[in-house]
Request: fold
Amino acid sequence: MSKKQHSTVNNLQVLLEDNHLIVINKRPGDIVQGDKTGDIPLSDTVKAYLKKKHNKPGNVYLGVVHRLDRPTSGVVVFAKTSKALPRLNKMFAEKDAKKTYWAIVKNSPNVPEKRLVHYMKRNTKQNKSYANIKEVPDSKKAILTYRILKKLDRYFLLEVDLETGRHHQIRSQLTAIGSPIKGDLKYGFNRSNADGSIHLHARKLRLMHPVKKVPLEIIAPPPNDPIWNACL
Reply:
């Protein structure tokens, strides 16, 4: 995937929008927030969308609440008001926002469902995290639960519930049990996907609305490709 590819206002997939927040189905390859690549981030695209849709003069307020890895797709929440942003930040920081992912792997895990506990150590030079069975210096505890949802022709669809939110956590922990994610060269899959994506998708997010205090469950359809389509 070209580093210069990015979302455009016209093909932005909005999953939910009200006065206080907007939820987007991020495409693989989009960056959520600006970085050293200089590529147009999703946050800028959402601002342009809101400016155009609501015919807003001047700057548009948009708060980045959380991020997804660039090659990953799925649910991303942005705050539209300064009232909603700190409340959403608190929910994510305190793990009150529950995240469920889908991952496609070639090697089936040994058991159909398991809670994985590792100690993650991040290597900033490599931009990679390593999952250790035992605690090591400067490591952080990482917990997820996976279950096999479906057997495809050549792959397995896993559903993953995150208990912690560590750097590259799902990618690293699944590799640690011998099930790297399809297309994820960095974490041990044997070849990349043609478009630079990996088959990891933020499928579902459950949280309380930051202002209305009603429960929200947001589900994002996976990208349109033959393997993802076979999962539906």
Q: What stands out?
A: The longest helix spans residues 42-53. The chain has four helices and eleven strands.
